[in-house]
Design brief:
Layout lengths: L5 H19 L4 H25 L17 H26 L1 H8 L3 H7 L1 H22 L1 H8 L3 H13 L2 H19 L6 H21 L2
Helix pairs in contact: 1-2, 1-10, 2-3, 2-7, 2-10, 3-4, 3-6, 6-8, 7-8, 9-10
């Protein structure tokens, strides 16, 4: 999919990056808006992938297609994701304390040394809680725009789809993590290729799991 419309994919990635960077400049509200709007953008990109799969054209406008279809449900998924991530970090904050949590999150070496093994345990707990959240969110936007599922049902079905393919999902996650580290090295330019490939891979996996099951 990337090779067929590489230029458009890169433009979409750059535009999305500019939007998110712009939102990040707005204290608090910008971060919340990023979480809320991410599923909306994801839904639009899934529609773009579908257009390519049907021998159609991918357009920059597909990035905003989620604002024209199932927008409310996609926004709800974004709101639910905020709640989910709050639930994930609460146990870590309780384990470390508020000050230590933010210090370790920022990589403060003194905080890491002072807390010791507790940091590793707390963050391992966070990772363990984060995996189910990713599973629930991974295919949810696609399920909303293609199956017109309600948000809660989309999250449930996404989780089930990932759970039934848990080994490939975990391997995929590790591969993406490694590739992301490599992609960031050349001034982040590798992300211009990696992010579109990830987006396309989500669509392909969605079709394999939910259309060909």
């Amino acid at each position: 999919m990337f090779k067929r419309k590489a230029g458009i994919w890169i433009l979409i990635t750059i535009l999305l990056g500019v939007i998110f960077i712009g939102l990040s400049l707005i204290p608090v509200v910008g971060a919340l808006a990023t979480w809320v709007l991410s599923p909306v953008f994801a839904g639009g990109i899934m529609l773009g992938c579908h257009a390519l799969a049907q021998q159609g054209d991918l357009e920059v406008g597909h990035l905003f297609a989620g604002f024209r279809k199932c927008t409310g449900d996609l926004v709800v998924i974004g709101l639910l994701s905020i709640v989910a991530w709050i639930i994930v970090i609460i146990p870590v904050i309780l384990a470390l304390g508020v000050g230590a949590f933010f210090a370790t999150a920022q990589g403060d070496p003194q905080a890491l040394a002072a807390i010791g093994p507790g940091v590793a345990i707390a963050w391992l707990l966070a990772i363990g809680l984060a995996v189910p959240v990713y599973m629930a969110l991974w295919f949810a936007p696609a399920l909303v725009v293609f199956r017109e599922m309600r948000p809660i049902e989309a999250l449930k079905q996404s989780f089930r789809g990932c759970l039934h393919n848990i080994v490939p999902f975990l391997v995929y996650g590790v591969v993406v993590l490694v590739l992301s580290i490599v992609a960031v090295i050349p001034l982040g330019l590798g992300l211009l290729v990696l992010l579109p490939v990830i987006m396309a891979s989500v669509y392909v996996a969605f079709c394999e799991i939910f259309f060909h099951a």
